[in-house]
Amino acid sequence: MDALRRDGPTSLQRQIYEGIQAAILQGHLPVDARMPSTRGLAEQLNVSRVTTALVYERLINEGYLFSRSGSGTFVADTLPRSHRRSDRHEPLATAESLLSARGLGITARVTALARGAGAFVPGVADAQYFPFHIWRRLQNRYLKRNHAELAGYVEQGGYLPLREALCTYLYASRAVRCSPRQIIVTCGTHQSLDLLAKLLTDPGDTALVESPCHWGAPVVFSAAGLQCAALQLDEEGACLPDGETDARLAFVTPSHQYPTGRVMSLQRRRDWLSFAGARNLWLVEDGYDSEFRYDIDPLPAMQGLTSESRVIYLGTFSKVTFPGLRLSYLVVPDVLAEAFAKGMTQLYRPGFLATQAAMADFISEGHFASHIRRMRGVYAERRRLLKSSLETHFGQAIHYSHGQAGLHLAVRIGPPGTARKMLEQAGAFGLSLRGAYTLDPQADDGNLLVLGYGGIREGELDEAVQRLRALYEQCRS
Ligand SMILES: Cc1ncc(COP(=O)(O)O)c(C=O)c1O
Questions:
Q1: Which 3 state secondary structure label does DSSP give 247?
Q2: What are 290-299's pLDDT values in tens digits?
Q3: Could you write out the DSSP letters of every residue in 302-363?
Q4: Same domain, residue pair 193 and 162
Q5: Of the four listed, 69, 93, 236, 410, which is most buried by Cβ atoms within 10 Å?
Q6: Which atom of ligand 1 approaches the CA of 123 most closely?
Q7: Where are the beta strands (DSSP E) in 83-187?
Q8: What is the per-residue pLDDT for 185?
Q9: Domain span at residue 17?
Q10: Is residue 118 included in any domain, yes or no?
């Protein structure tokens, strides 16, 4: 046993316990070995006898030692076999050889960035502006006292006052028409996607997905057993499939296509709605960052354009508040409301009711709207600064893609393949870059960069763009 540390944070009792336990597990104390008496061990270690007696008592209770009346305490033979040195199995092979085919598919392409903020992590909000003092107060409201209604398993579909507050907000901000029961609160868009894929499709069905897109949709859909087929983009947004299709759903981001920034035209929205209505097709409309438009008012969500719509609308609090909150929602047609609430409970047994309650108050007391107003100004200015800095340092070498919205700027950079090299080498320049995530990696022309400005302060932007320029110089061939 290592020498005891008498002034450290770990108690003597714990150190002795862990020392004996390790000696047994590692085979240094063989089965049936006789242990010193508690008095003898106490003297040997210069600790009180009460300490060693408590250690032995615990080790006996846990099955490491046993006592034989009158003859002493011994090392037991009741260890799990896998703990015994002689019974050790071969070490596990590589993760690749252990994962299922589905597991391999899920983990094959690295998608989430390792860094959560900084230049130019896309899609992250600037949490430093979030009014945490208000948020804390609202959370405390529900944590300080006993709220029996928040302590059990979740009500189906989520906390009702939050769904009511969301209903009002979604109608006013995006013309989404629904009743509270149509809103299902989830813990992140991935969960929303997983839920709808599992409830509305069967393995082997086809999902149409914009390409390029946010990586989450194809990863989650494929894991649910769906075949993903690419939807091309043109100036009006996601194109309808050329010929007939037996796809069960189409995933689109009409308010701000991710990552190109295109806004789907009203005509194209109507085309999609009538296309879906005439087939057995669900339109999955992701309005992930529609709060942030800096030029025109947002177009109404597809969801609200017809009353008999086959649209599942997805929203998230990640962009408006902060992603670590993991709060998002789906709006489903009334006819599916009960089934989705049930499905949510059956699959995930969701929780976080106190957080949902705090968010309901955050919205209904007006903090949400004022935070959005404030952040719209912050991001608009950041976007302006980023563009102007890019113009200064890149001039004609960069072409901006569409739209004045969201938390990122998508740029095209030549010559072909340069952006791909920049993605590979960005880390060495302290930058986090994203390119286009296409369904078929071969279809990526390697020219697109997604530059997030949510996680970088105004004062740091120009210096980061200069690093981007240095990276570009190194990579252009
Ligand atoms: C298009 C799109 N939808 C949804 C999300 C993520 O939302 P959540 O944080 O709810 O998973 C992102 C995140 O970047 C996104 O780009």
A1: coil
A2: 888 887 777 8
A3: GGGT-TT--EEEEEESTTTS-GGG--EEEE--HHHHHHHHHHHHHHH----HHHHHHHHHHH
A4: yes
A5: 410
A6: 14
A7: 183-186
A8: 97
A9: 12-87
A10: no
